[in-house]
Amino acid sequence: MSTTQVRPTNTQAFFVQSALSFGVSAIGMATGVAFLPVGAWTRAFLALGLLYVITSAFTLAKCVRDRQEETTVSGRVDQARLDKLLAEHDPFKVDNP
Protein backbone atom coordinates (compact mmCIF):
# COMPACT_ATOMS: atom_id res chain seq x y z
CA MET A 1 0.00 0.00 0.00
CA SER A 2 1.47 3.34 -0.98
CA THR A 3 0.65 6.55 0.77
CA THR A 4 0.38 9.89 -0.90
CA GLN A 5 1.81 13.01 0.58
CA VAL A 6 -0.96 15.23 1.94
CA ARG A 7 0.99 18.41 2.62
CA PRO A 8 1.54 20.34 -0.61
CA THR A 9 5.15 21.09 -1.41
CA ASN A 10 6.86 23.28 -3.94
CA THR A 11 8.70 21.56 -6.72
CA GLN A 12 12.34 22.23 -7.46
CA ALA A 13 11.26 23.79 -10.76
CA PHE A 14 9.05 26.34 -9.00
CA PHE A 15 11.86 27.24 -6.62
CA VAL A 16 14.32 27.73 -9.50
CA GLN A 17 11.75 29.70 -11.49
CA SER A 18 11.10 32.07 -8.61
CA ALA A 19 14.82 32.60 -7.96
CA LEU A 20 15.52 33.24 -11.65
CA SER A 21 12.53 35.53 -11.92
CA PHE A 22 13.80 37.60 -9.03
CA GLY A 23 17.35 37.76 -10.33
CA VAL A 24 16.48 38.58 -13.93
CA SER A 25 13.93 41.22 -13.00
CA ALA A 26 16.18 42.92 -10.46
CA ILE A 27 19.20 43.06 -12.78
CA GLY A 28 17.15 43.99 -15.84
CA MET A 29 15.24 46.78 -14.18
CA ALA A 30 18.27 48.25 -12.44
CA THR A 31 20.28 48.21 -15.66
CA GLY A 32 17.44 49.59 -17.73
CA VAL A 33 16.65 52.43 -15.37
CA ALA A 34 20.30 53.36 -14.87
CA PHE A 35 21.45 53.44 -18.49
CA LEU A 36 18.39 54.57 -20.42
CA PRO A 37 19.04 58.03 -21.89
CA VAL A 38 15.79 59.67 -20.76
CA GLY A 39 14.64 62.29 -18.29
CA ALA A 40 13.96 61.95 -14.61
CA TRP A 41 10.18 61.50 -15.01
CA THR A 42 10.65 58.63 -17.42
CA ARG A 43 13.16 56.99 -15.10
CA ALA A 44 10.70 57.34 -12.23
CA PHE A 45 7.96 55.74 -14.31
CA LEU A 46 10.21 52.86 -15.26
CA ALA A 47 11.20 52.43 -11.66
CA LEU A 48 7.61 51.35 -11.08
CA GLY A 49 8.68 48.15 -12.81
CA LEU A 50 10.51 47.41 -9.62
CA LEU A 51 7.12 46.46 -8.20
CA TYR A 52 7.54 43.24 -10.15
CA VAL A 53 10.86 42.73 -8.42
CA ILE A 54 9.15 43.16 -5.08
CA THR A 55 6.48 40.56 -5.86
CA SER A 56 9.19 38.19 -7.08
CA ALA A 57 11.02 38.73 -3.82
CA PHE A 58 7.93 37.76 -1.84
CA THR A 59 7.52 34.62 -3.95
CA LEU A 60 11.15 33.71 -3.43
CA ALA A 61 10.88 34.34 0.32
CA LYS A 62 7.82 32.08 0.47
CA CYS A 63 9.69 29.31 -1.33
CA VAL A 64 12.66 29.58 1.00
CA ARG A 65 10.38 29.59 4.06
CA ASP A 66 8.41 26.58 2.83
CA ARG A 67 11.59 24.66 2.07
CA GLN A 68 12.92 25.43 5.55
CA GLU A 69 9.64 24.34 7.16
CA GLU A 70 9.79 21.01 5.35
CA THR A 71 13.08 20.20 7.04
CA THR A 72 12.10 21.10 10.59
CA VAL A 73 11.65 18.34 13.11
CA SER A 74 8.11 19.33 14.04
CA GLY A 75 7.06 19.30 10.40
CA ARG A 76 8.48 15.82 9.91
CA VAL A 77 6.83 14.56 13.11
CA ASP A 78 3.45 15.99 12.07
CA GLN A 79 3.82 14.43 8.64
CA ALA A 80 4.68 11.05 10.20
CA ARG A 81 1.61 11.23 12.46
CA LEU A 82 -0.62 12.11 9.53
CA ASP A 83 0.84 9.32 7.42
CA LYS A 84 0.20 6.85 10.25
CA LEU A 85 -3.40 8.00 10.66
CA LEU A 86 -4.05 7.75 6.94
CA ALA A 87 -2.49 4.30 6.76
CA GLU A 88 -4.69 3.05 9.59
CA HIS A 89 -7.89 4.64 8.32
CA ASP A 90 -10.34 2.34 6.53
CA PRO A 91 -12.87 4.45 4.62
CA PHE A 92 -15.12 1.41 4.02
CA LYS A 93 -15.39 0.39 7.66
CA VAL A 94 -18.96 0.73 8.98
CA ASP A 95 -19.59 1.06 12.70
CA ASN A 96 -22.81 -0.68 13.70
CA PRO A 97 -24.57 0.75 16.75
Automatic annotation (TrEMBL):
It comes from the Bacteria. InterPro entries: YiaA-like, YiaAB. The keyword Transmembrane applies. Keywords: Membrane, Transmembrane, Transmembrane helix. The keyword Secreted does not apply. GO terms for cellular component: plasma membrane. Signal peptide: none annotated. The chain crosses the membrane at residues 12-35, 41-61. This is YiaAB two helix domain-containing protein.
